[in-house]
Design brief:
This protein has 206 residues and is an alpha+beta fold. The chain has helices spanning 19-31, 58-67, 92-99, 103-112; strands at 3-7, 11-15, 37-42, 46-51, 80-85, 115-120, 127-131, 145-148, 152-156, 159-162, 167-169, 172-176, 197-202.
């Protein structure tokens, strides 16, 4: 079910029932963006649609959104980014125990399929990635770390992520990358944006 809520005078907030609904709605909006829309901001259960009021009205935008027919399973056709990872994270063994498999199986599963950036948050450049057709369920650490290094590759719940800078964090660390995912000198600064497709590639020895 889709619910539309006004958000200020220039945006509508689409409330949805699941993350899969968000991915499908975002994909539909990317492919058939209504006239006057200037920004899309997906989250775990919502998509914020920002409009230029000189080009459209919120009433017209609402009609266009109601006419969309998102397809569950459809993901935004974003660019593909490959992320080289050294799978030597401090929590790799614990994650393997939680999933009742070997550490090599965690790595194999993490690299086997494409991931999609569902939304961004927590810190500039931090992307919440989901993997279609693979049900991850990895609990956060019971005690968050005071500092997680930049480039750490981690799992929490159904998501994977790459820490863009050193910060506190409670996700399970399975590896690290030397790739810079957020750089203010780059345009745009965030390498991983909603809809971006991601492949994790194992490099080096564990």
């Amino acid at each position: 079910m889709m619910r539309l809520l006004p958000c200020g005078t220039t945006a509508l907030l689409i409330e949805l029932d699941s993350l899969e609904d968000v991915l499908a709605m975002h994909a539909a909006l990317v492919e058939n963006c209504p006239h006057g829309v200037v920004d899309l901001v997906p989250a775990a259960r919502t998509v914020l649609v920002v409009a230029d009021r000189s080009r459209t009205s919120l009433a017209t935008l609402a009609q266009a959104l109601h006419s969309l027919r998102p397809r569950i399973g459809k993901r935004p056709p974003g660019e593909l980014v490959q992320i080289p990872v050294r799978y030597d994270g401090a929590d790799l063994g614990e994650v393997a125990a939680l999933l009742r498999c070997a550490a090599a199986d965690v790595v194999r599963r993490h690299t086997a399929q494409e991931w999609t950036v569902a939304f961004c948050g927590f810190a500039p450049g931090f992307a919440y990635l989901t993997q279609s057709g693979s049900a991850w369920d990895v609990p956060r650490r019971s005690a968050p770390r005071v500092s997680v290094p930049a480039g750490a590759v981690a799992l929490a719940g159904e998501f994977s992520g790459v820490y863009p800078r050193a910060s506190p964090g409670g996700w399970q660390l399975i590896g690290g990358t030397a790739l810079t995912v957020f750089d203010l000198a780059r345009t745009p600064p965030a390498l991983l944006r909603p809809g971006t497709r991601v492949r994790f590639v194992e490099v080096g020895a564990r």
